[in-house]
Design goal:
Elements lengths: L2 H14 L5 H13 L1 H16 L9 H19 L1
Helix pairs in contact: 1-3, 2-3
């Protein structure tokens, strides 16, 4: 994938996952409206995303407890 195409792919992925600033998202949306080829590429990425399984991960209560304990410990150490 050429560098420019890779950058476009990255931009479209960030747009799809709402990982752009408001200004960047507005500009990307405008470009998608104006550029048919870009819109087609975005639609292909969106279709691929929709085919991904909808996984949900629920950590065990003990894992959450360990994380919270570690966070509390490090927060206290940082204050000392």
């Amino acid at each position: 994938m050429p560098m420019q195409e890779n950058s476009l792919h990255d931009l479209l992925m960030q747009f799809m996952y709402h990982d752009l600033t408001a200004e960047e998202a507005e500009e990307t949306a405008r470009l998608l409206d104006e550029d048919f080829a870009m819109r087609e590429q975005f639609n292909q990425l969106l279709s691929a995303k929709n085919l991904l399984p909808k996984a949900r991960f629920n950590p065990a209560p003990a894992v959450l407890s360990n994380i919270l304990q570690y966070s509390t410990k490090t927060a206290l150490e940082a204050r000392l």
